[in-house]
Specification:
alpha/beta; Alpha-Beta Plaits; 2 domains; five-stranded mixed β-sheet
């Protein structure tokens, strides 16, 4: 008579405990990223404020620091986030110390959105209405370009 041992199996309780632990880790990570998104890095909104059609904010980028490709880098960053950059150009001089966001329309909220996207404080938003420009916001890049989000 042959004696057979029953196949060795792990108790199902161990598998259930491991599955519960894995799910708890996943839920904790999702909760952490949700809180982080709401508080530290809110989602960027590139649509014009108050526009029922939801068109993108039109921006022109002006290089006032003279650093090579500063305007191009900022343009690529804004376009990748849904902004409509219509022009990139150099300023008439290259001695701008701090970057500015210039609201070209009466709706300053659009300038606030661009400033948030670039990491420029709201204290550096100015309003210069100009009906000859067909943009909502202008960004003047200064020598603080390395502190802006496109450079990080």
């Amino acid at each position: 008579m042959k004696f057979r041992f029953p196949p060795r199996t792990l108790p199902t309780g161990v598998f259930l405990n491991l599955a519960i632990l894995a799910l708890l880790v996943i839920v904790a990570y999702l909760a952490y990223s949700f809180v982080l998104r709401l508080t530290v890095a809110p989602t960027l909104d590139a649509t014009r404020d108050g526009d029922p059609q939801g068109k993108a904010i039109q921006v022109d980028v002006i290089n006032g620091c003279g650093a090579a490709k500063a305007g191009t880098q900022c343009t690529q960053y804004l376009r990748s986030r849904g902004y409509d950059v219509v022009e990139v150009r150099n300023y008439h001089r290259f001695d701008v110390r701090t970057s500015l966001v210039i609201a070209r329309t009466s709706n300053i909220r659009n300038a606030e959105k661009v400033a948030t996207a670039l990491g420029i404080p709201s204290t550096r938003i100015i309003q210069q209405l100009n009906p000859d420009l067909f943009v909502d916001v202008s960004v003047l890049i200064g020598h603080d370009v390395q502190s802006l989000k496109p450079s990080q």
